[in-house]
């Protein structure tokens, strides 16, 4: 009789024991899946929130006036647009979401406005992610709140900026900052309007804050400096710190809770496995008497543990994902709809790790099973 | 076929050492039906377990066809058991989640490359269990359970059957039936050793051995 068939028959015979063990794995996997799903959503939400505050990494021309840039946030010098391609083509770097911009003051209908040209966001190789900002189509414009209010500009209107006609795609909500005075358009349109073809004033990015030790700005400057020696790098620290703190907080919660959950579920499975072994002492004794070697008896118990792990992984993934999707929107109010989604990579990991976990938890009871003296067991009954 | 020499088994308990078997020497030839008789605690089961290569003696040797079975490695002893020995127990020891034919086939699982399904069905028919093939042990009578255990013991065509109180849980009619099947195996050239404290097996045995306090009486 094949061992696998015996495992299935035994599982069916002792359903309660099996279901309780599956429940233990399900609990552990559901906890991890819900946590990772929420963490991922949290990271995406942080990124999205950061966007509303601005990108936290700015690369500007080396000869730009730093004082002026820090005071008004607009660099006074330009640099070639090709720098973007250079930065975006690097492997193994610690920044992402590269956005080339060209910003310049200009007069529109007698009012000082900031014209901002935006290129579509690009990601370095292997780091493709959902764009953090909107993409402005050629020939269209996003108009700041103050400007729209002052000149009664509405969505669908066509505005003329220094001879370039742009269709208003959207009038932005009030920000209470410089964005209220911006007209945002496609980078190429801005270059044409400002008479700066092929030029940009800044490359904005989001850094990954991977440098946990030492000075992260110095490390970033070194990294970007080696790629673009003709540029200088600024990090908006308050945003960076907020992001780092949030990530650290998530890691801390995870680090504290994970061992408890894993140990509790491991003990749970172990106790059930011990009970199962005790129930099956006569069977183990019989198998040994019939000439089954220790490997086959081990397989009988570890095979069952693997089955427990597989079922637990599937159920835990479904439960964890459902929990994340049910309760996530309450936590991630801004981006819940787009940021919370099933993480299939977690299912793959759970399908590999949960059976291993169940097998490790059942290992000691299995060893107990193979060390039972068949002569003693058969005599006891 | 089977030579036991100075077979001794000592157990250490909190109360001190207990000799379950004390210097038993015995020769059993092929084709014998030996009844090992004695009261509870006389060492019958210990003797059977030692012959079955499942309980290493504290002293002495067990030779099966000239070979000391306790000189073999653990896995080699397991293979030896699977090929040469069939077991019948008082408590039947049927696996509760397997049906009758699967319980019989369990014996084939330890011997690689053998598909005993046809033989298992033949044996069950011979033992009058053809109508019970798909039944679980919980659905069988005591006599049917023991006949299933006999079919399991016979599946690998062993040279020796060891039966430990095989009629202990059976009524007279079923006890006779079980002993007749064991006798049939012996008449076909097999060897049977039955440990019993009842008189029934003596009637079928070609030789009776009495044990008293671990020694041959």
CATH class of chain B: Alpha Beta
**Intertermini distance of chain A:** 24 Å
SSE class of chain B? alpha/beta
The overall number of domains of chain B is 1
Task: Tell me the overall shape of chain B.
Answer: globular
Name its key features.
heterodimer; A: about 375 residues; alpha+beta; 2 domains; two-stranded antiparallel ribbon; elongated; B: about 220 residues; alpha/beta; Rossmann fold; six-stranded mixed sheet; four-stranded antiparallel sheet; 6 helices; about 30% helix
Overview of this protein structure:
- The complex is a heterodimer of chains A (381) and B (217).
- Chain A has 381 residues and is α+β, with helices and mostly antiparallel strands.
- Chain A folds into two domains: 182 residues, no CATH class; 181 residues, no CATH class.
- In chain A, the strands form two sheets. In chain A, strands 6-7-5-8-4-3-10-1-11 form a nine-stranded mixed beta sheet. In chain A, strands 2-9 form a two-stranded antiparallel sheet.
- In chain A, a hairpin with a 2-residue loop joins strand 3 and strand 4.
- In chain A, helix 2 runs parallel beside helix 10, helix 2 runs antiparallel to helix 12 and helix 8 runs parallel beside helix 12.
- Chain A is elongated.
- The mean pLDDT of chain A is 83.
- The longest helix of chain B has 16 residues.
- Chain B has a single domain, classed as 3-Layer(aba) Sandwich (Rossmann fold).
- In chain B, strand 7, helix 6 and strand 8 form a beta-alpha-beta unit.
- In chain B, helix 5 packs parallel to helix 6.
- Chain B has 217 residues and is of the alpha/beta class.
- At the A-B interface, helix 1, helix 9 and helix 13 of A face helix 2 of B.
């Amino acid at each position: 009789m094949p061992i696998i068939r015996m495992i299935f028959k035994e599982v069916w015979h002792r359903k309660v024991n099996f279901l309780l063990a599956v429940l233990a794995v399900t609990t552990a996997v559901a906890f991890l899946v819900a946590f990772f799903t929420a963490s991922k959503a949290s990271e995406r939400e942080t990124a999205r929130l950061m966007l509303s505050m601005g990108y936290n990494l700015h690369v500007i021309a080396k000869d730009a006036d730093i004082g002026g840039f820090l005071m008004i946030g607009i660099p006074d010098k330009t640099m070639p647009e090709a720098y973007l391609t250079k930065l975006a083509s690097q492997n193994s770097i610690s920044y992402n979401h590269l956005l080339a911009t060209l910003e310049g003051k200009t007069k529109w209908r007698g009012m000082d406005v900031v014209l901002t040209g935006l290129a579509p966001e690009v990601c370095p190789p292997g780091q493709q992610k959902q764009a953090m900002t909107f993409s402005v189509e050629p020939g269209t414009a996003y108009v700041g709140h103050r400007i729209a209010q002052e000149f009664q500009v509405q969505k669908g209107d066509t505005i003329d900026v220094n001879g370039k006609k742009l269709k208003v795609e959207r009038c932005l909500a009030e920000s209470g900052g410089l964005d209220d005075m911006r007209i945002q358009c496609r980078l190429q349109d801005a270059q044409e309007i400002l008479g700066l073809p092929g030029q940009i004033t800044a490359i904005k990015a989001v850094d990954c804050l991977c440098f946990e030790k030492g000075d992260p700005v110095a490390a970033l400057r070194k990294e970007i400096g080696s790629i673009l020696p003709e540029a200088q790098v600024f990090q908006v620290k308050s945003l960076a710190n907020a992001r780092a703190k949030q990530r650290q907080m998530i890691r801390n919660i995870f680090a504290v809770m994970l061992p408890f959950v894993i140990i509790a579920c491991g003990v749970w499975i172990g106790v059930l496995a011990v009970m199962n072994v005790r129930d099956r002492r006569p069977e183990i004794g019989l198998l040994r008497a019939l000439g089954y070697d220790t490997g086959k008896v081990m397989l009988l118990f570890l095979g069952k543990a693997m089955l427990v792990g597989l079922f637990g992984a599937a159920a835990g993934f479904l439960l964890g994902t459902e929990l994340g999707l049910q309760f996530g929107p309450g936590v991630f109010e801004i981006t819940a709809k787009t940021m919370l989604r099933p993480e299939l990579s977690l299912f793959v990991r759970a399908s590999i790790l949960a059976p291993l976990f169940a097998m490790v938890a059942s290992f000691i009871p299995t060893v107990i099973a193979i060390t039972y003296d068949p002569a003693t067991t058969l005599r006891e009954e | 076929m089977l030579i036991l020499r100075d077979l001794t088994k000592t157990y250490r308990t909190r109360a001190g050492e207990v000799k379950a078997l004390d210097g038993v020497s015995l020769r059993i030839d092929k084709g014998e039906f030996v009844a090992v008789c004695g009261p509870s605690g006389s060492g019958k089961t210990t003797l059977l377990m030692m012959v079955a290569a499942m309980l290493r003696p504290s002293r002495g040797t067990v030779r099966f066809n000239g070979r000391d079975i306790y000189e073999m490695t653990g896995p080699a002893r397991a293979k030896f058991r699977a090929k040469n020995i069939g077991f019948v127990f008082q408590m039947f020891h049927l696996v509760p989640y397997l049906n009758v034919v699967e319980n019989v086939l369990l014996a084939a699982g330890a011997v690689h490359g053998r598909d005993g399904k046809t033989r298992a069905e033949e044996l069950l028919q011979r033992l009058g269990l053809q109508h019970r093939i798909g039944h679980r042990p919980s659905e069988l009578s005591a006599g049917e359970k023991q006949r299933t255990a006999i079919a399991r013991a016979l599946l690998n065509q062993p040279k020796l059957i060891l039966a430990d109180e095989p009629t202990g849980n059976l009524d007279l009619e079923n006890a006779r039936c079980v002993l007749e099947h064991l006798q049939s195996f012996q008449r076909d050239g097999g060897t049977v050793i039955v440990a019993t404290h009842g008189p029934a097996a003596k009637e079928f045995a070609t030789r009776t051995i009495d044990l008293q306090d671990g020694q041959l009486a």
